[in-house]
Amino acid sequence: MTTRDETRRGAKEMRADASRPAVADEPGQSLPERLYAARERKGVDLYRAERDTKIRSRYLAALERGDYKELPGAVYTKGFLRNYALYLGLDPDEILVQWRRERGDNGPVQQVISVPQPIAAPRRGLTFSVGVIVAALLTVLVLAFGAYLAVQILRYAKPPTITVTTPAVATLTVEEDTASYVLKGMTIPGGTVTVEAAGGSRQATADSTGAWSVDVELRRGKNQFKIDATDPDTGKRADETAQVVITVPYAQIEAPRLTVDQPADGTNLQNGAIPIQGTATNATSVAVTATFDGPVAGGSGNASASPPPAPAPVEVPVADDGTFSTSLQLTTGRWSIIVTASGATNSSSQTRHVSVAFKGVNLVVAVKGSPAWIKVWVDGKLSTITGGAGKTYQPGKTIAFTGSTSIEVRTGSSGATFFTLNGDSLGALGKRGVPETWFFQPPDAPKKTQHQ
Asked: Are residues 331 and 405 in the same domain?
């Protein structure tokens, strides 16, 4: 379509619009007043009218002022008036007649040049350029990176989870001859799974679906497993661990298996609190006893006195995984410690020989029966445990002090304060409610002082 055809088409469309009823004017208005009033009624300014009619705003303003000298000529003025009248909803022929009348021109009507109307640009088909393709690729990359960041933020903010699918229950009893079991479950893909048991720990890595499996060894009795998961990228561990207990029944005729980890045989100790630790399987109970074998050369306490009484046997509870732990208070000397594990029909025992030779002053103060205020000096200096003002302790409280040469204790209730010096139980040295100060410097016997 040529420019001339587009102009004719625009003129036809304006004539079609002109066929609609014109907007009523007030009687007696001049042509500039009519144009201005019509534009005001339409609710547009000169710049909007310029964009819509393609007539410069200064020409439209000249028409609304009646300043026709500003226009390029009579022929163009008529064309402007016709197109502007069509745009404003006025009768173009009537507008032209009024314009000629107000100018005093009653001659024949000259040909009017129609000003070209804006032609809508034809819609372009879908085209692809290098710029469009690059922009699309950049957009896809930005969206993918944003999604990746969102996934990573969620992963860093949320710890992994851990579940156990095999066994299906938390507590399981298997056959007597079962020596191993395969634990299975789910966690995050690639997560590190740690299974902790009494015999150590084992690890496995989950596959791309999050499934994991660990083969664990079983011992007689209760085998307790603690299962945890760690995200290798964030280092975060699961908020809640999984627990599984697998019990292998004991054979009634099988004797208990006993292992004593502490103390080692032949150990020399400088205090009397002997740690007793070990493992007992197929055992219902563990008992610890001690017998006095003789004095220690160069030791203190009962080196030259009669043999001390043996401590009472200690019953030690056995944990679900077969471990046991306790302590035995012994005085100076050489001792034999016997640990016995008893089963349904049989028992097993192990003996450890230890020597106790106290070094310096080891004093254990226990409060019994009623509260007692206590203040202590160690090697002539105030103890940081009780402080300069001393402290009041309730019944059942036990405090241990260690010095090189001496320990001095001021108590507000001598009968409620019980002493154990280098493993020897001295009991209470006074009467309840009576404040006293006692000075301990082995091998001398304790003596009362006036230190306050």
From this structure: no
